[in-house]
Amino acid sequence: MEEVVPLNSPKRRIKRRYFILLALVVLAAIGFGLDRSRRMPLIYVIPESYVGPVVSLFDQPDGVEPAHTKDGLEVRVPENGIVKIRSNPTLGHSSTFPKSTVVFELEKRDGSRELLSEAVNPWQDNDQNDNPHWKVGIRDVQGNLRVIPVADQKGGFVFDDFPEADKNRPMIFWHESCQDRVFRPDWKAFTSGEKTAEELHIPPCGEFVVGTVNHVRQWPEWMFLRGKGKQEKLGISNPVYTSIQQLVDEANARVLRKKAENIN
């Protein structure tokens, strides 16, 4: 005959505690796995044919959800360079990319991919004799920075001192936040600090440029986002974008001009 164990017996209580503990461990493991999947690098997949500025807009109702892969969260850069993402994921690292939360991959026409390095803007450093020197750099996806001294010359392009072997290599330029390109008429309230981005409903966004040193230095002003590249060099001060649609319209017009003027 099967043994009948009272509901409140020590044996029942031990089994119940064991079951609860096991359930908590399973839930914690699931939660940890979900958290790890949320905290993955954001991977931009860039077609080999694409050159020019890219803007990522997050928290967009008409945006796409990044595709979950073992290496990170993938989004594709469209023809006009405006990437709308429905969510605003918290980024982290993966085993493939332990040093980067944002990764750039150039997708070639045969389907293979090439990891792109980032050009690092000039910064001033001091040698052992406290003499200031300007430097630029090239940072790879593993976080390695190759430092390049800037020649003591006036004028020219900011990355002219890159080695010749790197000047025709596709890479990423000016990767940064773009919330300063406020998409509302009351942008002065944001730049002055009177109101926050949330109060003004400014979308979280990032920007970067895809190209080579030798090509980027020759691009016309309309190839850059407002206030970037040649526009800064020439001292041109454009108004900010007053809406996302204005940004998109400008990007669509850039697609047509690139084709007409054979910029690729």
Structure description:
The chain is built from six helices and twelve strands. The radius of gyration is 25 Å and the shape is globular. The strands form three sheets. It has a five-stranded mixed beta sheet with strand order 3-4-1-6-7, with no helix packed on it. It has a four-stranded mixed beta sheet with strand order 5-2-12-11. It has a three-stranded antiparallel beta sheet with strand order 8-9-10, with no helix packed on it. The chain has helices spanning 10-38, 164-167, 187-191, 213-216, 230-233, 244-260, and strands spanning 42-47, 52-57, 67-68, 73-76, 82-84, 102-107, 113-115, 118-126, 132-139, 145-149, 171-177, 205-211. Residues 28-32 have low confidence and may be disordered. A hairpin with a 4-residue loop joins strand 3 (67-68) and strand 4.
Short description:
This protein is of the alpha/beta class. It has six helices and twelve strands. The chain starts with 9 loop residues before the first helix and ends with a helix.
